[in-house]
Design brief:
359 residues; alpha/beta; 4-stranded antiparallel β-sheet; 13 strands; binds pyridoxal-5'-phosphate
């Protein structure tokens, strides 16, 4: 099974005969400020430690995560990006059948398939802001028995949050019994941390929250992800993970970045302002509808009379070296949707001009 991703600047630059640095990438949703200032010194300061194995217990990294979230270390499991955890979760939690709310990150399908987990699809709709309703969830759970329910919060690729009714329903159901597990992908929740379901962890038995360092800290190349889950569940996942999957540089980077409050505030301010501006400018282009979003990306639906998003993508890539994410490969969407990251003001202006010109 091949999973399509945004951000494949290496493949595209080779194809276009340019450098990856020439591409302005709106197809992967990464903090446009890049990693926090001072990180390069931290990494060079621990360069000599590459001559030893990383700390097998990830102690400093787990302590930093624990402090940041005010959650005890036994609630935490760390991995090589959240993708590594996504691949181990079905096996660690013995999930033979899962209810998967779509659209979502494409690797879930492959991770479930590889573990032989049967997937029942629940398609969210534009009318419900691409999040499931309690009615839909209850109906699916009444019809069939599932060991896990996968939700994405904020949704990917729309950026919408679960509504308060669904959140209360998850909180209630995850405190009652051990099954189904509620697997909540909160990889982008750092952009609206107050909405995180982590606040229910101390009274839940079967809530597992998938988090990432990648997006907010502008460092997908470092590969740090973590799980927040009740101690028994976190221990079960930890027992499946291979040793040293988070390397020495990533451990040090994580410990440093979680303490960067000023960077965090600057990021939140920038994204909130630019998201509003970019959404306004894109909505003003005839035939485009932008969905309200709480993270650092926007989902756009195109009028069917316009050429599809894959055409738009190649037009602006070839002419402007700007890359957007056409969404035809998301189960539950089609080629008249595209997603763009929220970036710096001048970069967003270049995107808007390119889309205006192409359409
Ligand atoms: C919704 C979602 N979940 C998980 C991931 C995996 O991120 P990472 O492995 O870098 O933590 C991605 C990456 O694009 C994503 O979009």
């Amino acid at each position: 099974m091949t999973v399509v991703h945004g951000g494949n600047i290496y493949e595209l630059s080779a194809r276009a005969g340019c450098s990856p640095d020439d591409i302005l990438d709106f197809s992967a949703s990464i903090n446009p400020l890049g990693p926090p200032p001072g990180l390069a010194q931290i990494l060079s300061g621990c360069f000599h430690r590459l001559a030893s194995y990383p700390d097998i217990h990830n102690k400093l990294l787990i302590e930093a995560i624990s402090k940041f979230h005010d959650i005890d270390p036994e609630y935490i499991a760390v991995g090589n990006g959240s993708t590594e955890l996504i691949y181990w979760l079905p096996r660690a939690l013995a999930v033979s059948k899962a209810l998967v709310v779509l659209p979502t990150f494409g690797e879930y399908a492959k991770a479930f398939d590889l573990q032989g987990t049967r997937r029942q699809k629940l398609f969210s709709t534009p009318e419900d802001r691409f999040q499931p309703t309690v009615r839909q969830l209850e109906a699916a759970l009444q019809k069939d028995a599932f060991e896990a329910v996968l939700l994405t919060h904020p949704a990917s690729p729309s950026g919408s949050l679960l509504d308060s009714e669904t959140i209360s329903w998850i909180a209630e159901n995850s405190s009652k019994s051990r099954r189904p597990f509620f697997l909540i992908d909160e990889v982008f929740i750092d952009f609206c941390e107050q909405a995180s379901l982590k606040r229910f962890l101390d009274r839940s038995q079967n809530l597992a929250i998938i988090r990432s360092f990648t997006k907010f800290y502008g460092a997908p190349g470092l590969r740090i992800g973590y799980l927040l889950a009740p101690p028994q569940v976190a221990a079960q996942v930890r027992s499946h993970l291979p040793p040293w999957s988070v390397n020495t540089l990533a451990q040090a980077a994580g410990a440093y970045c979680f303490a960067q409050d000023e960077y965090r505030h600057k990021t939140l301010d920038l994204i909130a302002k630019q998201r509003q501006r970019l959404a306004g400018e894109l909505s003003a282009i005839a035939g485009l509808k932008v969905f309200p979003a709480q993270a650092n990306y926007l989902l756009v639906r195109m009028d069917r009379r316009l050429p599809p998003a894959s055409r738009l993508k190649w037009d602006i890539f070839e002419r402007d070296r700007i890359l957007i994410r056409d969404c035809g490969s998301f189960e539950g969407l089609d080629d008249w949707y595209f997603r763009v990251a929220v970036r710096l003001e001048d970069q967003n202006d270049r995107l808007i001009a390119a889309v205006q010109r192409a359409l």
